[in-house]
Amino acid sequence: MNKIVSKEYFSPQVVKLEVEAPLIARSRKAGHFVIVKVGERGERIPLTIADANREIGTITLVIQAVGNSSKKICALNEGDYITDLVGPLGKATHIEKVGTVVCAGGGVGVAPLLPIVTAFHEAGNRVIVVLAARTKDLVILEDQMRANSDEVIVMTDDGSYGTKGLVTNGVESVIQREKVDLCVTIGPAIMMKFVSALTKKYNVPTVASLNTIMVDGTGMCGACRITVGGKTKFVCVDGPEFDAHQVDFDEMLMRLKAYN
C-alpha cells in the first residue's frame, strides 16, 4: 500500500499524484515507469515516473482519466492508498552530451518528458522543448519545462495559446533554423509516428517512448510486443524507449485498438 501525500488537478481529466515510495524514489532514473493497481481486483496500469523526491521518498505520477481504471486512480485523494505499486521498470533513458536536443511532448506525454528534459539539460545539452495540446487549458508543466530547458515552444491545435499548429510544426521550425542532434518524443502513438516521419526526412536521430498495452510489466505476457527494425521487442523490458525510425507504428496503432 502506497499513500498519496498530495493531489493536484492539471485539468478536469488530468491529475498529478505525489505518492510515498521511498525505495523507488531512490533508484528511479529518467525514463523509468511503474505499474499501479487500485483495489484487489483492479487493472494493472503502467505510468511513467514524472518526478521523484529522494529526501522525502515520494514519486510523482500524472494520470489522465480515460477508462474505468484510470478514473479510479484519479478519484483517489490525499491520504488514500494505491493498493499496489511496482517499479522502477523498463530501461532508463540514455543520457549524454550530444549538442542540441529537441524534446517533443503531447498531452500527458509531457509529464514523463520532464525528467528526460532535465537530465539532458544537466548533461550540458542545449534543450528545446515543444509542448503540444488541443487547447490552452490542456497545456501542462510549462513552468517546470522552462526552468529546466533553454527554450519552450507551445503549440495548440486551436491557437488559444502559443502558436497554432501541431507538434510537428514546432519541431520542424527548430530543425529549419538550427542543427538538431537528437529528438525525443513522447505522447499519443499517432503523434510520435508523425514526429518520427518528420525527423527521418531531416536525418535527425529520434527516440520515442512507447505507450503500448501492458499487463505484467516483466516481459512474460507479451501484450506490449512491437516490431523494431523487423524484430520483435517488448516495451516493458526492452524499452520503453526505442529508435523511432525503426518502430512499426502502424502495427503498434493496430494493437492499441485491441480493447476498443
Overview of this protein structure:
This protein is of the alpha/beta class and 260 residues long. The protein has two domains: 2-89, Translation factors (Elongation Factor Tu (Ef-tu), domain 3, Beta Barrel), CATH 2.40.30.10; 100-256, 3-Layer(aba) Sandwich (Rossmann fold), CATH 3.40.50.80. 27% of the residues lie in helices and 33% in strands. The chain has eight helices and 17 strands. It has helices at 22-27, 68-75, 110-122, 142-147, 167-177, 189-201, 235-238, 249-256, and strands at 2-11, 14-20, 33-37, 45-48, 51-53, 58-64, 81-82, 84-89, 100-106, 126-133, 151-156, 163-164, 182-186, 206-209, 225-228, 231-234, 241-243. A seven-stranded mixed beta sheet has the order 12-11-10-9-13-14-17, sandwiched between helices. Strand 15 (225-228) and strand 16 (231-234) form a beta hairpin. The chain is globular. The two termini are 31 Å apart. The relative contact order is 0.13.
The description of the largest β-sheet is: 7 strands, mixed
C-alpha end-to-end distance: 31 Å
Q: Under the CATH scheme, which architecture of the largest domain would be assigned? A: 3-Layer(aba) Sandwich
> Uncertain spans, ≥5 residues at pLDDT below 50?
none
Specify Rg, calculated over alpha carbons. 17 Å
CATH superfamily of the largest domain: Nucleotide-binding domain of ferredoxin-NADP reductase (FNR) module
Strand content: 25-35%
Form type:
globular
CATH topology of the largest domain: Rossmann fold
On the 0-100 scale, what is the average pLDDT?
Answer: 90
